[in-house]
Amino acid sequence: MRAFFLDRDCAESAYAAESYEIITQNSYILRMNRIAGSKKSPPSANKTSVLLLHGLPDASPTWVAAGPENALTDAGYDVDNSRCFFFGPVAFMSQVKNILFQLVATFVGDNSLTKSLGQSVCISYLELLFSRDENLNTTLLPLIAQYHLAGAALKQLAHFGQNVRSGTFWKFDHGIINNIKKYGQIHPDCNLRNITLPVYLIYTAIDELADVQDLRKLYEILPNAQKFLIPCDNFAHLDFVWGKYANTLVHNRILSLMERYRK
């Protein structure tokens, strides 16, 4: 259904949409959606590729739900999408304010509680995030409710819970013995200082998942990062993609930054 929506919506808007299934080395089957061109910018082998990673528990239609304004494809990019985590720059989560993820962090050690919590996560996720959202484009709500609760693995929730509780940004913690077997170290640390490519952290003051303190910690570790605070006091987590002012406050800046690196 989600793939059909993306293909149908793009076709109606004269965008060239394609879908692929990719099998990973550990046997996961991932669906990749691609928008290669449009009337304004036809498909071409010389285009710069862009990989969009949507949020948990979201799906690829999130990138087309708001319509074609400021479309990356129209700007001359070859756009692909795959599953990832969050909209905002989330890494460290020790200061997370969102009630749902606080609960995950509390009960992550109990598999039965984690499973029970996971069964209701999709229902409560949007409700919890929308509760303070004054800038959300409410005309999109029927579409969001229909297509954008794509689910998430319980292990993903457990992983987030581990990082909320520990205040770290680690790989999944299997316990000391299994960590040594799997990672060759006691703590499954991710060395973020090895990320030397330019990173731009665009954040908001009231994001309940990407807290300002956690973002500053990430910024101080990354060796080649810049940060930009969105100049809006009530800009929330989901406003990055579904907000009424997302184009003005976020997307225009992103397009400007991307032009610096276009091949």
Overview of the molecule:
The chain is α/β, with parallel strands linked by helices and 263 residues long. It folds into two domains: 1-84, Alpha/Beta hydrolase fold, catalytic domain (Rossmann fold, 3-Layer(aba) Sandwich); 88-263, 3-Layer(aba) Sandwich (Rossmann fold). It is built from nine helices and six strands. The strands form two sheets. The chain has a four-stranded mixed β-sheet, with helices on one face. Strands 5-6 form a two-stranded parallel ribbon. A hairpin with a 5-residue loop joins strand 1 (15-23) and strand 2 (29-38). The two termini are 35 Å apart. Residues 1-5, 83-87 and 109-124 have low confidence and may be disordered. This is Lipase 3. It comes from Melipona quadrifasciata. It holds the Pfam family Abhydro_lipase. Residues 10-65 form the Partial AB-hydrolase lipase domain.
Query: What string, H for helix and E for strand, traces the elements in order?
Result: HEEEEHHHHHEHEHH
The helicity comes to 25-40%
Strand order of the largest sheet: 1-2-4-3
Query: Which CATH architecture of the largest domain?
Result: 3-Layer(aba) Sandwich
Query: Biggest β-sheet: count, sense, barrel?
Result: 4 strands, mixed
- Mean pLDDT, rounded to whole units? 76
CATH superfamily of the largest domain: Alpha/Beta hydrolase fold, catalytic domain
Give the domain tally: 2
Estimate the strand proportion.
15-25%
The count of DSSP E runs of length 2 or more, i.e. the number of strands, is 6
* C-alpha geometry: globular
Tell me the number of helical segments per DSSP (H or I, 4 or more residues long): 9
- Poorly predicted runs are 1-5, 83-87, 109-124
